[in-house]
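Lecture 7 notes. Example A: sequence first, then its structure tokens.
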Amino acid sequence: MTTWAGAIIETAGMAEFTSVASKCGVIAEPTKARWVLAECAENADRFAPRHLARKLSRELGATVIAFFVRTTESVEEIEQWERGELRRSLAYSENAGGWISDRGEPQAWEADFFEDAAARDDGEWPTSKRGSIAPFRRLCAQLDVDPDHPTARVVARRDSAYWLVVAASLSLVAATVVLGFLH
């Protein structure tokens, strides 16, 4: 696996979870589990989980942890959103010199996410196994979701701006063809 992107979504057993999630572009199986893993397509850009997490956390009034990891480039990003507000953001890029973003207060899940969390307590940022999926698998285990069997998937959705650009492009092509026939 070279790229893994998705979100771990707090459902708190909400009966309306699947319908709210589908409005946000997530197809999920009905569940009573507290957390659900939603996986993005392999070709997802690094911003897809972030936009999804912000929207879902706001719509559900819950916590969503978005992640993006690309092992071939040793890049990883993780964000925690609560009720539409960003609470924590971490980003690592080996090519950019290591940790490039650390916003918000440390969260309880970080103890398992960082295998060498003790080093962090001494003011050092952990660097072992960065850019791998291991920390994300540990986070999944901590929240009791199976990283090998996501119970939800993110479907590509186009917003209205996308469709306006498509319509304008098609109109331009049609107008060019019509004008070509008239001359």
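Example B, a different protein, same format:
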Amino acid sequence: MSPGTFLFDDNFRFHDGNIGQKIFVLLNNGSTGIYVAAKTTSHGDRYGIQHGCQILDRFLNFYLVQGSCFLKKNTWIQLDSFYEFKSDKLMEKVMIGEIKRIGVIEPRQTIELLKCASHSDDLSQSQETIVISSLETIKASVSPEAI
């Protein structure tokens, strides 16, 4: 799975231990043995409404306006908390349908998302390295006109 892939999990385990439904987005391709991911929300009461990177908001986020991609609602990618998944385990859950793949944003949006995420103070050093490497890889694979 590539950066910018959105997944839906009925049994997403949050950092506080609670389990619930959640859409999340992958920030890398899993080649390091882990996927770094960020959760999303359609409840934007604590976020701005300018499309793209909300670097000046209290909580760093990336806003996808309804209609800018496959998502049916205005969606904020929450870049103030990150999750790691073992690549093989996540792939297995997707393959057996336990986690559903719901879509992938276009490369230009993925590049902007990764640039935004790389500014987060909440990334660990290893996560930051993975996100920046992912950004460089996708930029190298996309024609300059698409960026």
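Note on Example B: Residues 5-142 form one domain. The mean pLDDT is 92.
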